Amino acid sequence: MGHYPAMSAPFPPEPERAAELRRRFGEEARAGRPDLATLCLLVGAAGDGALDEAGIDAAQIELDRLAGQLPFRPGGPRAWADALNELLGERCGFHGSAADYQRLESSLLHQVLVRRRGLPILLSVVWIEVARRAGAPVYGVALPGHFVVGFGPPEELSGQVLADPFDGGRVLSGSDAEMLVAGATGGPLDPSMLSPADPLDVVVRILNNVRAWAAARPERSDVALWALELSLAMPAHPARLRYEWARLLVRRGEFLRGAAELEAYAEVVEAVDPAAAEKVRRQADAARALLN
């Protein structure tokens, strides 16, 4: 894959391009079988105005190229995990570190493919997409606090092999997985935690990570905005996201639009919590007052 211009905390595209990307993202998310790589690359384009259509195509081609370097049907789940470990972790150097949590690029697939660094969930997307293209039985596993990859038939978790792309694709023992869960929750590993993650759930988790990054950096409300707007384009989302979006619009100085969205949210919550609806309407009035 060609060199991609290094950018620190990239900025989103112009409004017209952003609106088109949101439309495409919503269509893909509502497709019968949403494509994980496509959704992640549309997230990347929404967050990085330098990523054009040629760049999106180049990222897909890179995933194809990497898949072409895997051995043909190496064997069972453990053989697949070892093959991905050797190719992506050892030969290509994909891995993560604590510093990657501070970089927005670590949540953008096209940047992860070039930098070969990223958050656990984005590195797992690379593992999943490369392995899937090569014919491996592979899926994401959303352990609490740490995303990993599972190999084997999804309906046969007894033979499941787990790998940690953040650690270069190291194959995990049962006790390794238990320690990861205990470190994140203080509790035991429940078998339900090992179930395959739905692609849309993966994308929601990625967008939540982006929103958390932006929440720690109030000066980057532009990042919070595009992440919220993509979250709202998902087929299902918590109603409260509309309230967060409306409040963000007001914070960014879009007082009339924010007030209108606050009132729309108040209509939604009126039936279940009239007091909360009234409070939101007062916030809408206050937003309009800021125009004076």
Automatic annotation (TrEMBL):
Similarity-based family: Belongs to the UPF0162 family.
Q: Where is the Protein SirB1 N-terminal domain?
A: 61-208
Organism phylogeny: Bacteria, Bacillati, Actinomycetota, Actinomycetes, Kitasatosporales
Q: What is this protein called?
A: Protein SirB1 N-terminal domain-containing protein
Origin species: Streptomyces capitiformicae
Classification via Pfam families: TPR_9, Transglut_core2
